[in-house]
Amino acid sequence: MKLLFIILLMFLGGVLAYDRYLTPEGHRTFFANPSIDGGSTAAEAPRPVAKPAEPEQEVMLVSELEKMPFVPPQIEPLEKLTKNWTVFPPTAFPRHVKLSKPVTLKLESGTSVLPAGSHAVAVGAQANVLLISLTEESPPYGQTFVHDTDLPAQVRASYERWKKGRIENALVAWKRRLSAPVTMPQAVDPQGMPVRNRDGTYDLLLASMKSGQVTDIKLNKIQRWSTPQTRTIDGQPTWTVSVFYETMAFCGPMDAEAQAQIRNGQIVRWIYPGSGEPVP
Q1: 3-state helix, strand and coil shares in percent for the chain, rounded to the nearest 5
Q2: How many angstroms separate the Cα of 192 from the Cα of each of 6, 26, 62, 211, 261?
Q3: Residue 2 predicted with pLDDT over 80
Q4: Please, which residues have CB within 8 angstroms of residue 134's CB and are 6 or more apart in sequence?
Q5: What pLDDT digit, counting tens, does each position of 137-184 carry?
C-alpha cells in the first residue's frame, strides 16, 4: 500500500513537471498561462477609471434688473416740447422778460411804449405771442412775439439744467435698483399682483420710492394710484401700476404718469407709459 502511494506521487509529480516545463504556452492544464502582454498571470476585469470630481457649477441668480443696462432717458428737443415755441404750460407764467423790440401798451389812461431793453412781465401766451403786462398782478396791456424777448433763452437755460438733472437722477436711480433691489414677496398676492392698501397705496411701490430707486416721484406730490393691470411684457406676465403725480418740468411743475412693472414681487422697471422712457 505504501509502495502504491509512492508510485502515485511519482506519477503525479511527473505529470505536473511535464505540464509546467514541456507543455506549450496556452495549452497547460494545471499552471496558469501567461497573459498576452506578459503581465500578471491572472486575468482581471477592467476597473472603471474614476473621473476627477468636477466642481459643482455655482448657480447664479441674476435678477432681471441686472440684465438691463443703463438707458439714459430719451429727452425730446426743446423745440419739439414747445412745438416750435407755440405751447407753454400755464406754470411758465407769470415770468419777467427782457424786450428786444418796443412794445405798445394800451392802458386805461392811453397808450405807452416800452422801448427795447425794457423789462416787463409775460403773464401768458397765445401760440407764439406773449401777453405783456407791467406787474404780475396786472392784466395784459400789450403783445409781442416770443422771439422778441429773452424768454427762449430763459427757457433753454432751464431746459438744459432740467435735462442734465434728469439724466443724472436716472443714473443714480438705476444704480440703486442694482445695488439694493426691493423684493417684497409679502407685498404681492399668490398671483403676483401687488397688494393695495386701504389708502390706495402699495407697499412695494412705496418701498421703491423711499429707497431712492425712483427719484422723480415725490411722495407728497402723488395725486392718485391706478389699479393693477396684467400684461405680457418681455414675453412674461407682468403686473403694472400707474402713479399720477406732479413733477418739475423744464419750465415749471406739470402733471405726469409713471408706471411700475412688477414680476415675482419685484419692480423690474419704472417707465413713462407714453414714451416708454425710464423714470429717473
Answers
A1: 25, 30, 45
A2: 97, 77, 19, 21, 11
A3: no
A4: 105, 120, 121, 141
A5: 999 999 999 999 999 999 999 999 999 988 888 888 888 777 767 778
Does 25 fall in a domain?
Answer: no
CB 229 within 8 A of CB 243: no
176 and 106 in one domain? no
Rounded Cα gap, residues 38 and 31, in angstroms = 15
**What range defines the domain where residue 214 resides?**
155-271
Judged on CB neighbours under 10 Å (0-12, 13-18, 19+), 126 is: exposed
Angle CA 233–236–241, to nearest 5: 50
Looking at 112, 134, 153, which one is the last position of a domain? 153
Q: Domain ends where: 119, 153, 187?
A: 153
Q: Specify whether 165 is located in the same domain as 266.
A: yes
Torsions phi, psi for 279 (to 5 deg): -85, 125
Q: If we measure between CA atoms, which residue out of 41, 46, 40, 43 comes closest to residue 31? A: 41
- Look over the chain and give the mean of its residue pLDDT values, rounded to a whole number: 81
> Within a domain: residue 117?
yes
Structural domains counted in the chain: 2
194-234 tens-digit pLDDT: 999 999 999 999 999 998 888 899 999 999 999 999 999 99
Q: What gap in Å lies between CA 119 and CA 115, rounded to an integer?
A: 9
Q: Is 125 exposed, middle or buried (0-12, 13-18, 19+ CB in 10 A)?
A: buried
Confirm whether 201 is domain-assigned: yes
Q: What are 126's strand-pairing partners?
A: 129
Q: Any idea which residue has 407682468 for its cell? A: 238
pLDDT of residue 20: 57
